[in-house]
């Protein structure tokens, strides 16, 4: 099963990358506010059991993919074909 | 009592300050062999461990996030949990926070620029084994060189660290090079045996380098390492 993990800086955490992106977008003439830059990790899991996949992914996030002090994460499982 | 305490410096793929750290420690009276990240254990008789600066594993994912899974880190964590002295410099500091041996996290500099310059630091606590050669309130000049040195702790953690005297070094008022919260430049763990700092004491151990103040930090570590050996005999 294919899954995607989205990792974001938590609200309130200074995100200079997001600020730089926002400022560049404004330079281009886009009306944007509060841009934040996170990270996306796609992984292939050797299971089709959605509950098991989610449990595994949560452990991956807690142990490596996100730093819980500064980042939040969201797990998206691919729709069954 | 050993004349020269054994203070190994760990080399990760991408470490680049290990030689300077080892050389500075040797000058200050330690024996400082470099040990490889795939080693399963620390050399027998290790009195303190140094995790040096650099860009371990290319800073992939988050600085220090991958290095903490190196085989040697299991030994370093066990050594620290037993009360062993561990110093992390720059990337070493990042690795120690990722490994959970030190509180807080290090984020990209607020300016998004890599900063490389001498910075004035204030010693907040000279009780620590890592600053015993300093006086509380003393100002030190030591260089920083990093892109991800913005220390972060939430309000609750910051209050806790402040109250417990775990904030050992701060950037002098108005000189914060990276946006670190509360000007934090170096923190220690609750037990006081693990210390991490963003500035590089190993690059400031001789007047020819612009400052000798780094020798006060590394010299304090060598003193503490010698004492820990004497206590163990």
Poorly predicted residue ranges of chain B: none
Query: What value does the Rg of chain A take, in angstroms?
Result: 16 Å
Class by SSE composition of chain B: alpha/beta
Distance between the termini of chain B: 7 Å
The CATH superfamily of chain B is known as Class I glutamine amidotransferase (GATase) domain
Beta percentage of chain A is 25-35%
Main sheet summary of chain A? 3 strands, antiparallel
Q: Could you report the average pLDDT of chain A, rounded to the nearest whole number?
A: 94
Query: Low-confidence segments of chain A, ≥5 residues, pLDDT <50?
Result: none
User: Per the principal axes of the C-alpha atoms, what is the gross shape of chain A?
Assistant: elongated
Architecture (CATH level 2) name of chain B: 3-Layer(aba) Sandwich
Structural class of the helix and strand makeup of chain A? alpha+beta
What is the CATH superfamily label of chain A? Phosphoribosylformylglycinamidine synthase subunit PurS
């Amino acid at each position: 099963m294919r899954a995607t993990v989205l990792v974001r800086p938590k609200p309130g955490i200074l995100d200079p990358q997001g600020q730089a992106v926002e400022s560049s977008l404004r330079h281009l003439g886009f009306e944007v506010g509060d841009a934040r830059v996170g990270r996306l990790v796609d992984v292939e899991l050797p299971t089709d059991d959605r509950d098991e996949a989610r449990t595994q992914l949560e452990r991956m996030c807690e142990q490596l993919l996100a730093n819980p002090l500064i980042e939040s994460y969201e797990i998206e499982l691919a729709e069954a074909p | 009592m050993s004349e020269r305490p054994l203070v190994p410096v760990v080399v990760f793929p991408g470490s680049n300050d290990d030689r300077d750290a080892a050389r500075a420690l040797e000058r200050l009276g330690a024996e400082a062999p470099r040990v490889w990240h795939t080693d399963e254990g620390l050399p027998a008789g290790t009195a303190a461990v140094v995790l040096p600066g650099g860009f371990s594993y290319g800073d992939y994912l988050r600085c220090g996030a991958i290095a903490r899974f190196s085989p040697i880190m299991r030994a370093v964590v066990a050594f620290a949990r037993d009360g062993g002295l561990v110093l992390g410099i720059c990337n070493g500091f990042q690795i120690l926070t990722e490994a959970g041996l030190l509180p807080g996290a290090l984020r990209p500099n607020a300016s998004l620029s890599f900063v490389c310059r001498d910075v004035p630091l204030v010693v907040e606590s000279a009780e620590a084994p890592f600053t015993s050669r300093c006086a509380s309130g003393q100002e030190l000049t030591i260089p920083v060189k990093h892109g991800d040195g913005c220390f972060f702790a939430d309000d609750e953690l910051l209050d806790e660290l402040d109250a417990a005297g775990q904030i050992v070094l701060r950037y002098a008022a108005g000189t914060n090079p990276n946006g670190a919260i509360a000007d934090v430049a170096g923190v220690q763990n609750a037990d006081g045996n693990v210390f991490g700092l963003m500035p590089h004491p190993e690059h400031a151990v001789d007047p020819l380098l612009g400052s000798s103040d780094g020798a006060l930090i590394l010299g304090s570590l060598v003193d503490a390492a010698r004492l820990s050996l004497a206590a163990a005999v």
